Fold:
Amino acid sequence: MLLLMRWLSRRSLRFLHALGAFLGWLSYWASPSYRWRLCANAALAGVTVEQRRQAVAEAGKMVMETPRLWLRAAGQPIADPLSWEGAAIIGDCLDAGRGLVLLTPHLGSFEVCAQGYAQRFGERQPITVLFRPARYRVLRELEETSRQRAHLRTAPATLGGVRQMLRALKRGETVGLLPDQVPPEGLGVWADSFGKPAYTMTLAARLALQSGAPIVLIWCRRLPRGGGFHLRVEPLVETLPRTAADDAALAKAQAEVVNRAMQGLIGQCPQQYLWGYNRYKTPRALDPGSGA
Structure:
């Protein structure tokens, strides 16, 4: 597998995206459960049939561009054109020196968000990103080593990883996470997402409120014909609530603010969202040996 990934990492982005589009459709027709979930989730969000068809191919492109992003030399910048929109928002937050919480959904080339930040802003303020370790050892080791780059650290989605993120914010650094990722049991609440309850992490709001760091939204559009990537940065417009009837109601209200923000980003480019992701699943139990 590693040899194949290394070979793929040296292919052009245009080739990888063409291959990925084919494999995306192959996976769609080969797996009835994946096909049903993608269609059901997209229909729930009001995605058109044409956008849904595009999303099938875009999911394959996401998979095939990953070796090119992961396996380049540690000191080498992202090999493909990378443009920014709204980068000044991040710069202003870094000037304030209170740390920064970056949020992105499973939208577009989300792997590029942390790498692009580290490449442009990492010398000023490094970033620690939360990730879900892969189940298979070989892939997990590759994932961990490939994501460890200059000014970019990773934290597993465990209690130990949460503490690592809090320590980074206390040092005035940046953290990044995907708040539409289903957290382990006990680290989330059931909150509305596209009109349906989804188990949603409370971590994003907790990190911001406990540290005083602002929340900024970031997502990366995959450009057509292997043309590279476009990063877009936006402020979190809706304020996180600080009071409610009780702690449970407050956590749910805060999670729904984050969910609405993610829905706003997804609505800008629904054809590049991973509708096949099992967003509405029941969470797995927290591993007691996870470093807590």
Observations:
- The first helix runs from residue 2 to 9.
- The beta strands are 82-85, 100-103, 127-131, 152-156, 174-177, 188-193, 196-201, 215-222, 229-235.
- Residues 287-292 have pLDDT under 50 and may be disordered.
